[in-house]
Amino acid sequence: MKLTGRAIYEGRAEGAALVSASPMSFYGGVNPETGEVVEHGNELKGQSVKGRVLVFPHGKGSTVGSYVLYRLAKNGVAPCAIVNAKCETIVAVGAIISEIPCVDMVDVSKIKPNARVKVDGASVEF
Amino acid sequence: MFLTREEEKMLAGEEGRAAQKAMQILVALGKIYGAEKMVKVSSVQVSGVSYKNLGDAGLEFLDELAVDGRARVKTTLNPAGMSLTDWKSQGIGAAFAEKQLKVIDAYRRLGVEISCTCTPYLAGNTPGFGQHIAWGESSAVAYANSVIGARTNREGGPSALAASLTGRTPLYGLHLEENRVPTLAVDVEVPLRSPEDFSAMGYFVGRAATDGVPLFRGVRQAGVEELKTLSAALASSGGVAMYHVEGLTPESKLKPEGHEAIAFTPKELQEARALLDGDGSPDFVAVGCPHCSLSELETLARLLRGKKVSREFWVCCSREVKRRSDDAGYSRWIEASGAKFATDTCMVVAPVEELGYRVVATNSAKACHYLRNAGLRTRFMRLEECVAEATRSS
């Protein structure tokens, strides 16, 4: 299936989907050194975002979360792409400064966990 | 989104990498929030200064931008995690201080004024009515929109910095008059007798208004100190970025949208105070959230003159206002009492929880909110009561 959304940060990437049905907080929610999700109550707790196409509805929490994405990228443990239903400031800024391809305005419920996902500009194929 | 030729050049990287990154951020935000174009800004206030919040990630990002980035408009800075000169006497460790000074150095290279205050409007960053600006620091955002009538959205650290490095911000939200109209009326049916009453009211109403625009009716008088602390409280319990006080603030004639109204009576004032004031004997007293005005320092000098404090007492203010207080002769009365000026910083952004204090007395609802989140207990008191508490023999 191929969905077309809106490119927040254009780029190409391919990886296995890591899907959270709930909004994600990066500040305090993801360990910037390891990429592990540490947020209490998030269904991805204990899994690593490294190299995955990270799929979630939208970001939440502190604006410092943008810097956490940057730190993940510097440490080589960032997701290879981000797909959102509706991107907000924290994730958008984080994706841009970290140069992580990011697309939003797609129906994220269509993407199944571990599906092979290809992101290219505004399109998401899986 | 429409971009001018100059903006296109920045986006293409012709003005350097930092300006390109900044323009990418602004275009993405414009896209998300449906802006048709950019608007030029005359002033920027950058938040995201304390190393406690930035961490190494933030520091690296700033260092990278500082390679070729440069502020294009007047840009001032939020408080840091410590006094830049007296951090040792504040009990701050050398490792933290080293990182914090690196953050400050990056901002200096970016051409940002090292003002280190949450009240830029008291320290030389003074936009005028109707001007478009891009400010971070939620209390200053609410003050600038509401009291000055300048226009800013509630920026985060990177988006404010992006506005500084390009001189622009996307035109949406509170830059447009239609989004500045009141969404909720608040009928104030209790006399507000001190700035602390305004602070408590702001805390209560912020929770009800979430990110709306409250219109306060029935407030007879309010000066800088009252509005400063009201702004801070509204923005900490809720996401309020603008409010109106009927008959007092410059855009309070805008007609409210809908008819939703709440009452603020002695009962709500009592409830608000109860939310902020816990129990326990304070081992730390701190005033100046937001940073003290010169008039507050005058009051403190009068209250502290000839007395000695019996516990740690921080007076938080900007270095600019401290300088004026030195000239006016207030500082020496304050310092003679044993109280410490905490310039460049405050009890919210300094790592107070790591300094070993457990119960903090303060006159700010905003400070109570954040200190409680950090695991401390708070006592909410009027300024005079804070001084009485600090000078009480223990």
List keywords for this structure.
heterodimer, A: 126 residues, alpha/beta, Glucose Oxidase, domain 1, 8-stranded mixed beta sheet, 2 helices, B: 394 residues, Aconitase, domain 3, 3 domains, 5-stranded parallel beta sheet, 4-stranded parallel beta sheet
Fold and architecture overview:
The complex is a heterodimer of chains A (126) and B (394). Chain A has a single domain, classed as Glucose Oxidase, domain 1 (3-Layer(bba) Sandwich), CATH 3.50.30. In chain A, 16% of the residues lie in helices and 27% in strands. Chain A is built from 2 helices and 8 strands; from the N terminus they run ββββαβαβββ. In chain A, strands 1-8-7-3-4-5-6-2 form an 8-stranded mixed sheet. In chain A, helix 1 packs parallel to helix 2 (89-98). Chain B has 3 domains: 5-177, Aconitase, domain 3 (2-Layer Sandwich), CATH 3.30.499; 181-275, no CATH class; 277-391, Aconitase, domain 3, CATH 3.30.499.10. Chain B has helices at 5-11, 17-32, 51-65, 94-109, 138-148, 157-166, 195-209, 224-237, 266-276, 294-304, 319-328, 330-336, 365-373, 383-391, and strands at residues 38-40, 43-46, 74-77, 134-135, 168-170, 184-188, 214-217, 244-245, 261-264, 284-287, 312-317, 340-343, 359-362, 377-380.
| Mean pLDDT metric of chain A | 93
Uncertain regions of chain A: pLDDT < 50 for 5+ in a row?
none
CATH architecture title of chain A = 3-Layer(bba) Sandwich
Major sheet: arrangement of strands of chain B: 12-11-10-13-14
Largest sheet of chain A: 8 strands, mixed
**CATH superfamily (homologous) name of the largest domain in chain B:** Aconitase, domain 3
Q: Measured on Cα atoms, how large is the radius of gyration of chain B?
A: 21 Å
Percent helix among the residues of chain B? 40-55%
Q: How much of the polypeptide of chain B forms β-strand, as a percent range?
A: 5-15%
* Tally of individual helices of chain B: 14
Content-based structural category of chain A: alpha/beta
The tally of domains of chain B stands at 3
CATH topology of the largest domain in chain B: Aconitase, domain 3
What distance separates the N and C termini of chain A? 5 Å
The name of the CATH architecture of the largest domain in chain B is 2-Layer Sandwich
Q: Any idea of the CATH topology of chain A?
A: Glucose Oxidase, domain 1
Structural class call of chain B reads: alpha/beta
Would you identify the regions of chain B where 5 or more consecutive residues have pLDDT less than 50?
Answer: none
Number of E strands of chain B: 14
DSSP strand (E) fraction of chain A? 25-35%
**Assembly level:** heterodimer
